[in-house]
Design brief:
Elements: E1 18-23, H1 34-38, E2 41-42, E3 47-53, E4 57-64, E5 71-79, E6 83-88, H2 100-104, E7 110-117, E8 130-138, E9 142-143, E10 153-171
Length: about 180
C-alpha cells in the first residue's frame, strides 16, 4: 500500500496509555507468560511523566573492502546506556505504606521492567500484546531535590543484565504459562 501525499495518519496520545510493571522473574524475555506478568506489580502510578529513561543504541561494524570505493557496514553491539526510572517516593510520609516502587526496586534487587504502550493502563494484559522487557539490577536510590509544586520523588538507576532486553518486540504468550 502506498500513501498519497497529504494522507492523514492518526496518532495515539501517550497520556494514560502506558503501563509499567516490576516483574520478579521471566523465563523468556521474548515471550513472557501471563502467569509471570501477573506475579509482578503494576508500578504505573508511581512512575513520573517522562521518568522512564531507556535509550537503546547500536554500534556499526565497519566493512571496508579494498576492491571497492564504498564503505559498508553491519549491525554491531547493542547498548542501553544509562537506564533509570523516576518514581513517587513516599518514604517518611503519611503515605509510606504505599511505596511499592521504592520498596521493590531497592539497591541490589534484580527483576524485569515491563512496559506496554498504546493501550489504556486499565486495559488488561492479553496474549499477543507487544511489550518492552528489560532485565535489570537496581542501583542506589537517588533522592531528587524538589522544585516548587512538585511531588517527592526519587530516581532509581538500573543496569541491564543478562538476558538483556526486548524493545517492544516481546509478545505476551500463553495465558497461564
Amino acid at each position: 500500500m502506498t500513501l498519497k501525499l497529504g494522507t492523514e495518519i492518526p496518532g495515539t496520545s501517550a497520556d494514560g496509555n502506558i503501563t509499567t510493571l516490576w516483574v520478579p522473574t521471566i523465563k523468556d524475555i521474548k515471550a513472557p507468560t501471563m502467569a509471570e506478568l501477573e506475579a509482578g506489580t503494576d508500578i504505573s502510578n508511581y512512575v513520573m511523566l517522562g521518568g522512564w529513561s531507556f535509550d537503546p543504541s547500536q554500534d556499526a561494524v565497519s566493512d571496508q573492502r579494498e576492491n571497492v570505493v564504498q564503505d559498508f557496514g553491519a549491525p554491531g553491539r547493542k547498548s542501553v546506556g544509562d537506564i533509570s526510572i523516576e518514581v513517587i517516593d513516599n518514604t517518611n510520609t503519611e503515605h509510606q505504606e504505599q511505596n511499592e516502587a521504592v520498596t521493590l526496586m531497592h539497591e541490589g534487587a534484580s527483576g524485569y521492567i515491563v512496559r506496554r504502550r498504546g493501550m489504556a493502563t486499565d486495559t488488561p494484559l492479553a496474549v499477543g500484546q507487544k511489550l518492552t522487557v528489560v532485565s535489570v539490577i537496581c542501583g542506589e536510590k537517588q533522592v531528587i531535590n524538589p522544585d516548587a509544586s512538585t511531588m517527592i520523588r526519587s530516581k532509581i538507576p538500573l543496569f541491564a543484565k543478562a538476558p538483556g532486553w526486548e524493545s517492544e518486540t516481546a509478545e505476551i504468550s500463553n495465558p497461564k504459562g
